[in-house]
Amino acid sequence: MIEETLIPKVGVITDVRKDTPDVKTFRVVGTDGKKLFKHMPGQCAMVSVPGVGECMFSITSSPTNEEYMEFSIKKCGCVTEVIHSLEVGQHITVRGPYGKNFPVEEDFKGKDLLFIAGGIGLAPLRSVINYVRHYRSNYGKVVIVYGARSKDDLVDIEEIQTEWMNEPNMDVYLTIDRPQEGWDGHVGFVPAYVKELGLDPNMTAVLCGPPIMIKFTLAGLLELGFDKSRVYTTLELRMKCGVGKCGRCNVGDKFVCKDGPVFRMTELDELPDEY
Amino acid sequence: MLKIAKERLNELYAKIAESMGLFIPIKKAGEVNYHVWGEGKEVSLETLKTVKSPKNAFFPASENLMKFKTEGKNLEIIDVRWDKSEKPFVIFGVKACDYKAIEVLDKVFLADPVDTYYQSRREAFTIVTLACSKPEESCFCNAFGVDATAPKGDVTTWLDEKYLYWQPNTEKGEALTQIVADMAEQGGEAEVAAQQAATQAIMEKLPFASLDLSRFQPENLNELFDDPAWEEMSEACLGCGTCTFVCPTCQCFDIRDFKTHEGVIRYRCWDSCMYSDFTLMAHGNSRTTQMQRFRQRFMHKLVYYPSQNDGLYSCVGCGRCVNKCPQRLNIVKVIKTLGGKDND
Amino acid sequence: MKDVEMKMLERAKALLGSGEVARVIGWKKGEFYFDPVPASFESVEELSDFVYNGFCGANLSKYLIQMSKKEGKTAIFLKPCDSYSFNQLVKEHRIVRENIHVIAIECQGKLDIEKIKAQGVSAVTEVEEDGDTVKVSSLYGETTLNKEDILLVKCATCKSKTHQAKDEEIVLHEMPESKNNRFDEVEKLEAMTETERFAFWKLQLQKCIRCNACRNVCPACSCIKCVFDNPASGIAAKANDSEFEEKLFHIIRAFHVAGRCTDCGECSRVCPQNIPLHLLNRKFIKDIDGLYGEYQAGETAEGKTPLTSYTEGDKEPNDVVDGEAK
């Protein structure tokens, strides 16, 4: 029978990593042990536990990983709560990839890149950051600013500390909201930190995190002289189909599932403020 | 053109039903809707507006998408898609506005990636349309370029006191004509032309005959979105889904899972952007007020959908919302308030 | 009726003009004579499209849940039957009585445009009310109909013409009490065999399209989050899994409003498929009358209700289940 986008593939969980008290990263392959499908950084997939529900998640792993996919999932609703209870060997369903990716092969090429993430907002950025690392010579300087509520809420801290921080021509700045025992790094909110750092406004910036962080960080970037047309972010709205048919994730005449989730700030400026 | 004597209509239905499933307006518990024809059913072709539109045939209110079998940690997906070669169907009596609505739905469901559930039904159906001869005050299909007297479809029909006039338009329509040919005779062009002229004269006199849609352009999207009039227009809205469910073009759906003793069934069902949980996520809701939901519905029909589909509006002027909104809100009020200077 | 409308408009202007109230809830003109829309007016200027006629069937009381919490006083026009819903909402602490000015208005029974169309009149353009008759003009001709034949279902079996709550009154003509025959249809259902009754409801409820209009319009359905909308309830669903699953929704709803439903009839008025939903509620009202003595929800804004108060003489649950209580 012909392909149907709503009918998913069966995936097997091959690894579960507890990143923070409420974030786990799940490694998934097909029942044949191979990667389920190809994707590009920033794209998403519908993951489901049959009987519970299906939700859209960004694919955290880099497309350059040809063995498996990873999803970093924060426990915050009825589906993610069940996903968090799943163990290695459990079958789930996955379909995708959906949406537009970051323009890593177009606008990002040859540019200095600034990645700013808050909390679970690192999930979609991890994919693009690792993609950039893989094709390192295609891009200029990379700066990463990542913040979370506490040091325990920093997702993928091991990879950040052992790999990203040792990558040439790549600066990583971490911050947490409040002082904490055992943390000698920066303390403070991401937007303020970004301003403090006095970043080069000629960089292409990617923002991902809670709406409030995005709002204030964007304001900070504009103050520093960043150009909105070179600032990207991702949106998240309720989705059911993933392909622009079920009608619920639109902002104005754009569907986040199909026309997003990656948007240029200048594109968002043209849309109604309803996200 | 062919014509079939009105008193032989039942015979016609029976003949079609021998080899095909026949959906036709039938009165059941007082209301006329499309149901499967059977001997003794009360067919009501004269009913101008079925409560539910024909979209139900292609996009059912609820349909199973797949089943899951679980065994321990293992999972198997069972494709339950309907095999269209099983049986062909006919939907009979579709009005011009409702046919236009199917074209609107096609743009959504048949766009890449094709929705195969919709596609298989769409392909299995032969659509027989019926021209209107007695439009009513809530009709405004002409505002959306629909000619109520000359609907498209695989076969177009016209009905008067004596005959059903029959004009096949497509291969599917020709095939259906073969089935009913022996009860038909040639002729009817003059009668049809006369009926069309008479109906068109009425159409021009309808209260909503000249609605101005000129302001509903993609470039006015933000201006329309921010218009203060939405607040007042939506004030009485109950947040029910009546307008959505009787609308022939509303196509939003929900996908949910249902646990049965034989495994999990994943189904989709009609959903309404008027409902408070439509955009609800674990961490928030992008539309928290009824005004926002109300605005979404009409902006989608008049601005967002046209912007995505080369200017085609996703309202066809059937007037069902005009008749059925419990508090008498409807798209005509929105058009008159925001559509352009020529509305009163 | 025109004089009633004039008087109402006059009062609305006075109340808004003097600043005594911040808003008036009434009806505004629709596209036709027969489709007035519930509206709130916040200034004298806004009253330019104020209307009150034979098609103002909507019960406005539920709007007070939101409106009475706004700043300033809210005036509202209530027909006799709407005043019962109003009292019930006050009793359930859903609306703030002190913030409301109730204007009790005359009602001679409200009309149903669908019933007019069912009489074979299509493309209605004008309606003129004249006592017991209604003159209907359409693109296809004119006709005069008896008002009695085109009343809303709820008005055809009007339970009372007495206002149960009012701060002032606009009643210019006598409102004759109609013969209260509202339990006749319930008795017909009771006279059926179980199989017949099941078939009746199955045929009717199968028409349900799950639009929730009955629930959303119902003044007794004032839950902040309905169980059918709550994903955590396990029964939140927008679709039926069998052709007769809708009974679950309607029966649960009928149970939930039992003893609180004033029989305002809005559920049947708004149903797009014309399901006689009010009959479910009326059956409960009739049973409660039989079991606990005559009780009319919304007659007062105080006091206990039969289902929430205990007396030693109460029927035992098994009497009710076994049907002895009839």
Overview of this protein structure:
The complex is a heterotrimer of chains A (275), B (344) and C (326). Chain A is α/β, with parallel strands linked by helices. Chain A has two domains: 9-98, Elongation Factor Tu (Ef-tu), domain 3 (Beta Barrel); 113-234, Rossmann fold (3-Layer(aba) Sandwich), CATH 3.40.50. In chain A, 20% of the residues lie in helices and 31% in strands. In chain A, α4 (190-197) packs parallel to α5 (211-223). The longest helix of chain A has 13 residues, at 122-134. Helix content of chain B is 33%, strand content 23%. Chain B has helices spanning 9-19, 55-58, 96-109, 116-124, 171-180, 189-205, 221-225, 229-234, 242-246, 290-308, 320-324, 331-338, and strands spanning 2-5, 21-28, 31-36, 62-71, 74-79, 89-94, 125-130, 155-159, 163-168, 185-186, 253-260, 263-270, 280-281, 284-285. In chain B, β4 and β5 form a beta hairpin. Chain B is globular and about 65 Å long. The model of chain B has no long low-confidence stretch (mean pLDDT 95). Chain C has 326 residues and is of the alpha/beta class. Chain C has three domains: 1-109 and 161-178, no CATH class; 113-150, no CATH class; 182-326, no CATH class. The chains are: A alpha/beta (275), B alpha+beta (344), C alpha/beta (326). Chains in contact: A-B, B-C. At the B-C interface, α9, β11, β12, α11 and α12 of B face β2 and α8 of C.
The biggest beta sheet of chain A is recorded as: 7 strands, mixed
Unreliable runs of chain C, pLDDT <50, ≥5 residues? none
Average pLDDT metric of chain C: 91
Poorly predicted regions of chain A: none
Overall structural class of chain A, as computed from helix and strand content, comes to: alpha/beta
Beta-strand content estimate of chain C? 5-15%
Please give the CATH architecture of the largest domain in chain A: 3-Layer(aba) Sandwich
Question: How many helices of chain A?
Answer: 7
Strand content of chain A: 25-35%
Main beta sheet of chain C:
5 strands, mixed
Structural class of chain C: alpha/beta
Shape of chain C: globular
- Provide the gyration radius of chain A in Å: 18 Å
Q: Write the H/E string of chain C, N to C.
A: HEEHEHEHEEEHEHHHHHHH
Helix content of chain A: 10-25%
- On the 0 to 100 scale, the average pLDDT of chain A is 93
- The topology string of helices and strands of chain A comes to EEEEEHEEHEHEEHEHEEEHEH
Terminal CA distance of chain A: 38 Å
The CATH topology assignment of the largest domain in chain A is Rossmann fold
